[in-house]
Each structure stands twice: as C-alpha cells, then as structure tokens.
Amino acid sequence: MTEPKRRVSIAIDAMGGDYAPQEIVSGAVDAARRGKVEPVLVGPQSILDEELAKYDISGLPIRCINADGFIKEEENPALAVRRKPNSSVAIATKSVKSGEATAMVGATATGSLVTSALQYLGMIEGIDRPVIGGVLSTLAPKTAIFDLGVNMDCKPRHLLTFAIIGTIYARVFLGIPNPTVALLNVGIEEGKGNRLAREAFPLLKESGLNFIGNVEGHAILTGDANVIVCDAFVGNCLFKLSESGGSLVAGYFMDKLKKYPIIGQLLRRKSKSAVASLVSANSVSGGLIWGIDGVVVKMHGHSKAAQVATALEHARMAVEGDVVNCLKTELAKIQEHINL
Amino acid sequence: MTEPKRRVSIAIDAMGGDYAPQEIVSGAVDAARRGKVEPVLVGPQSILDEELAKYDISGLPIRCINADGFIKEEENPALAVRRKPNSSVAIATKSVKSGEATAMVGATATGSLVTSALQYLGMIEGIDRPVIGGVLSTLAPKTAIFDLGVNMDCKPRHLLTFAIIGTIYARVFLGIPNPTVALLNVGIEEGKGNRLAREAFPLLKESGLNFIGNVEGHAILTGDANVIVCDAFVGNCLFKLSESGGSLVAGYFMDKLKKYPIIGQLLRRKSKSAVASLVSANSVSGGLIWGIDGVVVKMHGHSKAAQVATALEHARMAVEGDVVNCLKTELAKIQEHINL
Predict the structure, then answer these.
(1) Contact of A164 with A327, CB cutoff 8 Å
(2) Peptide linkage before A147 cis (omega within 30 of 0)
(3) Which helix (H) or strand (E) segment is B27 a member of?
(4) Which residues of B touch A263 (CB under 8 A)?
(5) ω into residue A141 within 30 of 0, thus cis?
(6) Short-list A234, A225, A244, CA closest to B237
(7) CA dihedral for A107, A112, A116, A118, sign (positive or negative)
(8) Global pTM?
(9) pLDDT digits over B178-187, tens only?
(10) Among residues A287, A257, A285, which one has the least CA distance to residue A272?
C-alpha cells in the first residue's frame, strides 16, 4: 500500500490582481483538480463562497481562510499593509509564517506583496532586498536572468547574491546540476563595463560558483550561460524589450507576408501559436520572490486562471526543491570566504 | 548657368577595419561615383595605389593622403596614437583639423579612433566624453537611443547632454523639427528607477527640450519617443539584444514553418529580405562620435563596401546639417539655466 502523497498547501491572495477574484479562484480550482497542490484561498468568505459556487469542488483539495478586506492597487503599500493586518495579502502571508500554508502566491500589487512578505516573513540573513528573475524567452529556455526586481542601485556583493540565487533557481526549476553563471556586460573581456561590473567580476570569479565570465546583451536570447546577473534597472529594461520584441518582430514578419493572402491565411494560424509560445516564455510572471524567508510567488497583475495554476505549480516546485534552505546553505558557504 | 555643387570632402582611414584596405577603398570608389562626396583615402600611398588600380577612377572625385603606417587592432590605443602620429587614423583626423577634409570616417578600432579624435580635434566644451547613438530598429525608424558609447557611469547632467545630442540627431538625420525626448526607465511615473534616472528626470523636465517623461525598455521598438536617453551600459545591452533579437526571432519563426516545405520554400526568399531589412536597421554602424569638435564617424569593424558608402553619406549629412555648431548653440542655450 502506497502512502497518499502529501499535497503542498499554498495560500493565494484571492483579491489581488486585475481579474480577481474570478480568475484567481478559477485557476485555484484548476490546480486543485490536477491534484498536486492544495490551494488555500484567502479573501472575504462571502466573496470566496460566491466564486466557488460556480464550480463543482466536492472532494477537491481546496480550502479558504477568511480575510476582512484587501489592499487596493492605488494604496500606499507600506501604509496599507500596516493599517490592514487582516487584508487578504497580509492574512495569506501570515498563514505561511504560522504553518497553515507552506507557501503563498498573489497577483497582488508588487509593493503590497513585498511589504507584507518583508513584514511577516522577513529577509534571509545576507540578502538586503528581494530579488526576482527567471527565464525570459523560449529561445533560451535554459537561461535565467537575475535581478529583475527592486535592486536598482547595486553593490558588487549584490550581484554575487543574484548569482547564488540564480544557481539555485537553475538547479530546482531548470534541472541543471551545475549551472554556468555569467555577468552581463558590454564586452566579454575582464575589466570591461561600468564600475559595478568591473568590481563584481573578481567577486564572482572567487565565489566558487560555476562562473564563466562576461556575456553581452544578446546572451539572454542566445543562452550563453544558465544564469546571467545584472542590476534590476538593466534587467528590467532588457526584460521589457525582450517581452515586446518577440511579438513585434513576428508581427513585422507576418506583415511582410501579407502580399501573399492565400499562403498568409494558411500560415497565420500556425505562426500565431509560434509567436504565442515565444511570448509566453516569460516565466517571470510566475516569479518567486527570492531572499524572503519563505516561499512567496508574485504573479503578473493581469494574470488569468492559467497563470494562477502555473504560479501554484511554481510555488510547489520551490517548496519541494527546498529553495529557502538551499539558499541559506549556499550563502553560508560563500560567507566562509567572502563577506556579504 | 548653375554653379557646380561643392562636394563634401571626407577623409577615410583606409587601413582601419577587418576588411581594410580592400572593402574600404571599394566603398569609397562607390561613394565617389554617386557624386555627393569627395572621399579622401588615408593610408600608405603604395597600398592605396594598388587598391585604386582595380577601378576606373578617371574623373572621379577621389583623393589620397599618404600615411606612414597604421595602428593594429591589438595595440593599446592611447600609446599607439601617441607613438604613431603618422598612422592612417592620426593623419585622417589631422586632415579635418587642418581643413584638408571637412569630416572623417573609419572602421578603425574604437579606442584608436576616439583617442585620435580627442587628441587632434578635442571635445566641445560642456561635454565630458564622446557619445554615440542612433536608430536601432526599422520597427521604430524615428527613434534614436543615446548613449551607446563610452559613458558607462553617468551623472544626471550627462543624460541631459545625451538628450541635446539626440535632439540634434533627430532633426538632422530623421528630419523631425521638434523631436520628443524620453528617459529610459523601469516605469513611466516620475520617481521610478535607479538613482541616476530619478535625478535626471527633473533636469530633463526643466531643460526646455521636448521632454515627454519616462519610457520603458520596449519603447526602443515601439517608438514612443524620437530620442531615448540612458547610460551607455544599459544602452549597449539593449543594443546588442535588439541587434540579435530580430534575426533570432525571425529564425525561430521560420523554423516553426519548416513543417510546410513547399510553402516554406516559397516564403524563405521573401522572409530573408524582411529579416535583412530588420537587422540592417542598426544605423549605429555608421555612427557619428558626438561631442568631438569635428565630424568623426565610426564604422563597425566588419564594415564592407556598402557600409563604407553609408558612413560617408552619414558624414556628409552631419557636415551639411552643421551638427557641431548646432550642438554648441544648444549647449550654450541650456547652460543659461542649467550648469552642465
């Protein structure tokens, strides 16, 4: 007799995101049906009941936790999280702290989600501020970029922590045992770049990570390394360019083929799916907030049911990959010879 | 009787670039045939004679200036320019200073070209270091990015000078009388971004330029402003991503259509030209080095004849657009209320 597999319970801010609560609840129900996670919906019970009434959830692993209200997109995150300790995002985060859930996900506004995570779960020692990242394009499905988050003005040691985080990401989410790490730069030679890149290079070289040197901007599409590190200002700019680039170039391309209406029509369907797979590559939308002492996954504000299910899956992998403890262990190892 | 049009004489380092002197001379001959410029080839006379002997240049507006040698790619630019005052790049630059030519172009290594320009022509007052930029993609043919050059660690006032330079670029090369200027950032709201962006915003707002606020990474393809300013580290990363992105995405796309061999074959020819036009958009390869007190155009190291002809045309437009004096005038205007 096999023991029933323990499902990973994941709290969801049912009230966060452009399509909350409808699409959030819908995605949670889908995920529950797949059977690998136990979604824990957090929001005002009456709203949750109303949404759940739309589905047949008998026997499904899905729970609810009541919250008194929620934080609106336009509210000041720091103030709102403090003033509304019973808001859906706060309750969801606290459920991770208390152990009621093992992780949380939310399409909540970044500010509120991060503030709540900082307040109720705190940072891992050795990391100053939250870090996000991931694979940007199907063209380079084994290449992740860190940081795409809040670390705009970085010190060299920050890039080192991004490299550690990226290494764990690549191991757990991409299945690469010894991921290569590279520094984003304007040329491949050591000594190139701005002050940050020049100073981070030797630190990465001595880190004990699988550092292969500098890569240039195109590497996020050509996949020259499994992990590419940069500050979040550069990362964000590249991310947004790459995000729109796929569909723009494909659109341009299709436009050029418009002169051949019959062929064009035949192709349009096929090409649409090609473009879609290219654009949807952006796994950042289901992105773990690294550095928080707990598994917290931020979804894009405009996430729909499919993205919710993906984010729940992402959180499950993070829990099962034990990313928080892996990160603590790696940080401790590095700190034996480099002071973070 | 109409007066014969005065041709713009442009010195060329005939020894600079991966395909020098063959492709450089070939491009110069092409440009001379078009009749709008008078190329002035600079290099060892014997080499120039040998190359020119391959063409019928009788009656063509083309001249030579002898140089004793040239600077090799691997030499230290600062030392080489000092030690070789009679190298082709140095002689070409000096010909602009002396008035023998009105501008110069070179596929010379960037370091040597810039060092030579700095030494023999100097910087315009109010600009610290050379600036380069231009249109990155045919998807946004009316959008130029500055800086893509050497200004890796910028102060806010540097971004202001990029905005002035970009404005002149857009007027002269894109024919836009009152170009819109935007700051590259991670969000559109004022106050977003790294320290540089946050501090540059108010400066741009008060500049008297046609500043429209922040734009995000995708704007270099969607063309939300005529001029987008950023430091050269970010600019270079975006440039290299965009440069490779077009062909990579198109390649991916074509690959997806491979399943339809007959249609694919039919399309391949058409699509190749579409991709080519997308990729060749990179006008940076014919890029003026802004801030130098004279018109100096840097070509890509792997430029061939066609790129040489384009660079000569680019230099001619810069001379006829009087960009150096325009820049001095605009700088003076801004300095009345902002200290650069």
Answers:
(1) yes
(2) yes
(3) helix B22-34
(4) 263, 266-267
(5) no
(6) A234
(7) positive
(8) 0.88
(9) 999 999 999 9
(10) A257
